[in-house]
Every structure is written in structure tokens, then in C-alpha cells.
Design brief:
two-stranded antiparallel ribbon; alpha/beta; Helicase, Ruva Protein, domain 3; 16% strand; Rossmann fold; 2 domains
């Protein structure tokens, strides 16, 4: 438990050191690493979207190693069953009697990588819902609590849609962030080659512990946010809805469905995490703008005209932020 400001500053220094350590294994993608840490300290889950080969899986593995978290990987495929995720009851012999014994699945870890989550059927995708939201797993009539800290990092390929099952809005809403993983620059690509096609080995040192993350999550909730900043964040969420009175004409034209109240929770929590990691113990308007993109990206449903005109969700979010006054 963090008791005073000095301990809080020590914790911030450790988290920033963890970010630098993860950066040893992931060349470039500094903003992606930072946003994953914001989400982790906010107690949320992350959906990573990018074409194959950009290091999404490596990012999750590196994060688990540096944060001293138990790691498990689930490769989502069309034949994956819910029990392959949550676990199941097995019949075992005890004292010459057959009894049921629960065998935990891979979801019983601190950091779960749901690789290519959109390749599994909706029935299997939904097996993660309770774990992501409640941090519990129910099998039969028994509910099991997952160990803390717990986080799901899911990946999906935005290009190849054949044989995939797009995540429903209800499950997308369980992700705190949707983070775009972009292609590296030529300088970053050169550095990647220097590491991956040579005998150079990268050794990562554990910097954080599970207790550190739990303590930081509690401390973040105490960071103050001025009423004007809170109102600004909520006005951005409301501005995503085309049906509200006074909605912007751009939103009315290009948005089919706006963000849920969970978007407001995501913005509040992650803006506090961002402020703390930058050594500020209050939330600014710029913090709200920075976290709005990953928090809203998967919660706004573009309309037909947006698709017809080639308007991306990030363009819609940028327009909304520009149209909402800070005062």
C-alpha cells in the first residue's frame, strides 16, 4: 500500500523503468507500450490490432516478464471450445471413489494473451466475458476467482476477414482500449533486423511485481480530477451519439451508434494513469484528449456513409474532440 508522496514517486519511477525495459524487446512502438501500461494500471483489458509480424505477441510476453506476471497464451481457432479457455471438471479417483476435480484452463493466469481472438466462434469468445469483467470464472455451479492482477491482451488481424467472427459490440465494450499497432519506420526496421537475424540476445529483467501493480492501481484512483476536466471528458462521450439533441452534423452523418458509459469510465481511469506516469498528480485536458482515441476507437460504430466515404474511426474521434469546447 502506498502511504505517502515519496512512495508514490518511487512507484512512478519503477513503472517508467518497466516501460524502458519492455522497450528493449519491442523496437519502436513506444506509444503502444505506454498505452498498454496505462490500461494495466487502470485495471482494464486491451485489444491490439495490426497486421501479422509487428510484434504484438512479443509485446505481451515482454510485459509479462518485466512485470513478474504469470503468462498464458490461448491460440484462438474455429475448433476451440469454451472449456479449453476456462477449464473443466474431470473425473479422478480418490479413496477408491470417482469424484469430479476442477482442472483450471489457461485463463487462470495474471496476463492472458488471446491470440487472434476473432478466429474463434462467438460461443468460445464469450467464455472470456466473465473473466474480463468480473475476474471470475464459473464452471458448473461453482465460481472461481482469478488471481490479481488480471489482464487480457487480445490480438486481431484487421486485413484477413475470411473465416473470422467479428467481436460483438458487447464484448468489444469490455476492452478498456483498442490500440493500433502500426508498421515500423525504416530506422526501427533496421534495428529489428539487427536483433532478430543475429546472435544478439535480449535479456529482460523483472522490474515490477504483482503487488506493485495492485498498489499502483489503488493509488491512481485517488488522483484528483477537476470538475471542468470531468465535464469535458463526459461531453466528448455524449458527442459520439448522433441521436442526442444538438449533435454535430458530422456525427449525425457518419456515426451509427455512439459510445457506452464504459467509455467514460475508461477515459477517467486511463487519464489518471497517464497523469501519474508523467509525474503529475492531477488530470489535464490534454490527458483526456490523449486517451480518448484508444478508449473510443472500438466503441463508436461508423455508419454506411462513413464506410462509403472512406472515413476512419480515428478521423471521427479527432473531429469530435475538435468540436467539443474545453470550457
Amino acid at each position: 500500500m502506498i502511504q505517502n508522496e515519496n512512495e508514490l514517486r518511487e512507484m512512478v519511477a519503477k513503472i517508467n523503468a518497466a516501460e524502458a525495459e519492455i522497450g528493449k524487446a519491442i523496437i519502436g512502438q513506444r506509444e503502444v507500450i505506454r498505452q498498454v501500461l496505462w490500461a494495466m494500471l487502470s485495471g482494464g483489458n486491451v485489444l491490439l490490432e495490426g497486421v501479422p509480424g509487428l510484434g504484438k505477441t512479443q509485446l505481451v510476453k515482454a510485459t509479462a516478464a518485466v512485470c513478474s506476471m504469470d503468462f498464458s497464451r490461448i491460440q484462438f481457432t474455429p475448433d476451440l471450445m469454451p472449456a479449453d479457455v476456462t477449464g473443466t471438471n474431470l473425473i479422478v479417483k480418490q479413496n477408491d471413489q470417482n469424484v469430479f476435480q476442477f482442472q483450471p484452463g489457461p485463463v487462470f493466469a495474471n496476463l492472458v494473451l488471446a491470440d487472434e481472438i476473432n478466429r474463434a466462434t462467438p460461443k468460445t469468445q464469450s467464455a472470456l466475458l466473465e473473466a474480463m469483467q468480473e475476474h471470475t470464472v464459473t464452471v458448473g455451479n461453482t465460481t472461481y476467482r482469478l488471481k490479481e492482477p488480471f489482464m487480457v491482451l487480445a490480438t486481431q488481424n484487421p486485413i484477413e476477414n475470411e473465416g473470422t467472427y467479428p467481436l460483438p459490440e458487447a464484448q468489444l465494450d469490455r476492452f478498456l482500449f483498442k490500440i493500433q499497432v502500426d508498421f515500423p519506420t525504416i530506422e526501427e526496421l533496421k534495428e529489428i533486423m539487427n536483433i532478430t537475424v543475429t546472435n544478439k540476445n535480449i535479456t529482460l529483467s523483472p522490474v515490477l511485481t504483482g503487488d506493485d501493480i495492485i498498489a499502483a492501481k489503488k493509488a491512481i484512483r485517488d488522483i484528483p480530477m477537476a470538475e471542468a476536466v470531468e465535464d469535458y471528458a463526459l461531453r466528448i462521450v455524449v458527442a459520439t451519439h448522433p441521436e442526442v439533441a444538438g449533435a454535430d452534423s458530422y456525427v449525425q452523418r457518419y456515426v451509427s451508434c455512439g459510445a457506452s458509459p464504459r467509455a467514460g469510465q475508461a477515459i477517467f481511469q486511463s487519464a489518471k494513469a497517464k497523469a501519474m506516469l508523467e509525474g503529475r498528480f492531477n488530470v489535464s485536458f490534454d490527458d483526456i484528449k490523449a486517451v480518448a482515441f484508444p478508449a473510443l476507437r472500438h466503441r463508436i460504430v461508423p455508419g454506411f456513409e462513413a464506410m462509403a466515404d472512406g472515413i476512419k474511426v480515428d478521423e471521427i474521434i479527432a473531429n469530435i474532440i475538435a468540436s467539443v469546447p474545453m470550457n
